Amino acid sequence: MIDKRMLFDIHRLNDMGYSLRKIARALGIGRKTVQKYLDDPSIPSLSYRRSSKLDPFRDRIDALLKEDPELSVEIIRQQLVKAGYTGKKSILYDYLKSIRPQTPRAYIRFESEPGEQFQIDWGELGRLSYGKISRKIYCMAISECHSRMLYLELTHSQNQACVHQCLLNAFRFFGGTPKELVTDNMLTAVIDRDGPLIRFNDAFLDFLRPFHIIPKPCHVRAPHEKGKIEKGGVGYIKQNFWPLRTAQNLGDLQHQANRWRDEIANVRIHGTTGEKPILRFEPLCLRALPEEEHLLDCRQVCSLKVHKDFCVAFDANTYSAPPWLIGKQIILKADNHTIELFYNEKRVATHKRCWQKHQRIELEAHRMEAIKHRQPVQISEELAILMSLGEPIKGYLEKLVEIQGNIRKNAQKLIRLKEDFGFSAFHNAIEHAIVHKAYGIDYIENLLHRQPITIHPPVTLKEEKLNRIFLSQPMLADYDTFVLKRRAQHERCPQTEPEHPSSEGDAAIL
Fold first, then answer.
1. Which strand (E) or helix (H) includes residue 359?
2. In principle, which of 26, 165, 174, 247 could form an S-S bond with 253, CB 3.0–4.6 Å?
3. Domain residue spans of the chain
4. Edge-to-edge, what's the strand order for the sheet holding 133-144?
5. CATH number of 117-287
């Protein structure tokens, strides 16, 4: 058997005028072969049939199908295994598919009555960028089956809370609820299914209960059962809304979707009904919505701890809370647009939801409250001495604590500077720093080093413990007050002189 390349060369050399002998010699084949393919250039294909483990059981299969043409592959395989079959199920499946007549399955079209049924479906559209990250965009499409009236909502999640919120928004859009809700077998609706036995998601049933809606999951691998939404909803959205679509954020994209829904989707002539969905829709046939107090809160709910930075962590971001809640457990409720924080069922903060990641969303009021109610610094002995040196020094220290936090470690250094350079120089350096708003111990030290030392350094004792004893700066005004009070008392009672200073004078000295 020659290949197509050899066949091409036979005819090429023949066209060049080569004889049969010369062609045969050039290509290494016989003259009869050359003549054969010159007369008939077609190359017969090889056909051969491989043996199969199923061959000895073909008659048995034919007998079983003759008895019951609808026998399943598994039943036939079990019968063949009893007879000694050791092959796989796939071989049997392919053989049955080749011998059984393949007839297309017929589907019966039915139309729902107005307000009788809604169909829902999820679809993934693409991704939306937020800075350096992007998030998937999901679309929930909800259709009123009689009119094909369409509602769509775009989200970044398909979790339980998101399903409930989308459905509630759809009911509000339609102005009522249907009798039945057709879904697929998503886990947010159906936990488990075995044929006609269905175990629904408890949270899904709790959501539907106030609306008195009957859920109807379609059969597994039977998308035709909700074909009104499969093709007329999600498929239509992917083909007519999503292409070439850009948006700044999820809110902007939802706004565009609402305009497309109202200006295009629900006012077009529907291919099946031949009418506009908005005109075919009969809202009076829907059931009325329950009162708001009877509806469940559909937002995502989390119990979170407020950390030391007065924030809670949620969805890869942090959101601020009032600082007095640090260390406490609070409740966070989130939808696609808003984050709300609750403590003891009272709302304490509201934030706009951020879809980026690793961001800190902070309210100015929370930051100012954290500065105002910062935990007071424990007053050490050294710091108490500094605070008693007058208002300028006290005000400077308070500002220093506000900026740097705890300055206990530097209080001893400040006292050393006061004793090394004297109170007057130290006081002047503090006032100079206040004028220039230079709040830092290094700045005070540099100012003092620029001035000559006008006093003798303190005596250094051998015992280091004694060198760490600091005394507050004596206030001469206190002594003046004591003298004046003694003089006034002596003038009133010249014959009587107290043996000891009055308690009031002692208090002034202290």
1. none
2. 247
3. 4-39, 55-98, 117-287, 300-372, 381-467, 476-509
4. 149-155, 133-144, 117-130, 180-183, 214-217
5. 3.30.420.10
The interaxial angle of helices 391-404 and 423-435, nearest 10 deg, is: 60
User: Could you tell me the pTM of the whole model?
Assistant: 0.55
Long-range CB contacts (< 8 A, 24+ apart) of 261-267? Answer: 261/150, 261/151, 261/152, 264/240, 265/150, 265/236, 265/237, 265/240, 265/241, 266/149, 266/150
Q: Hey, what amino acid is at 265?
A: A
The sheet carrying 317-320 orders its strands as 311-314, 317-320, 360-361
The mean pLDDT values, 10 residues at a time, for the chain of 510 residues are 76 85 86 86 62 84 84 84 85 83 58 88 91 91 92 93 93 93 88 81 88 84 55 79 88 94 92 90 91 82 92 93 91 93 92 91 89 60 72 78 67 79 82 80 80 59 66 56 67 55 39
One-letter identity of residue 215: P
Tell me, what's the pLDDT at 414? Answer: 80
What residue type is assigned to position 486 of the chain? Answer: R
Cα(362)–Cα(367) distance, integer angstroms: 7
| End-to-end Cα, the chain, rounded Å | 123
In 241-345 the beta strands, taken as DSSP E runs, fall at 300-305, 311-314, 317-320, 329-334, 338-343
Give residue 221's pLDDT.
59
Helix, strand, or coil (residue 165): helix
- Cα(393)–Cα(424) distance, integer angstroms: 12
Tokens representing residue 505 in the block: 């004078």
Instruction: Give the DSSP letter string of 82-151.
Output: HTT--S-HHHHHHHHHHHS---PPP-----PPTTTEEEEEEEEEEEEEETTEEEEEEEEEEEETTTTEEE
Return the bridge partners of 340, or none. 333, 350
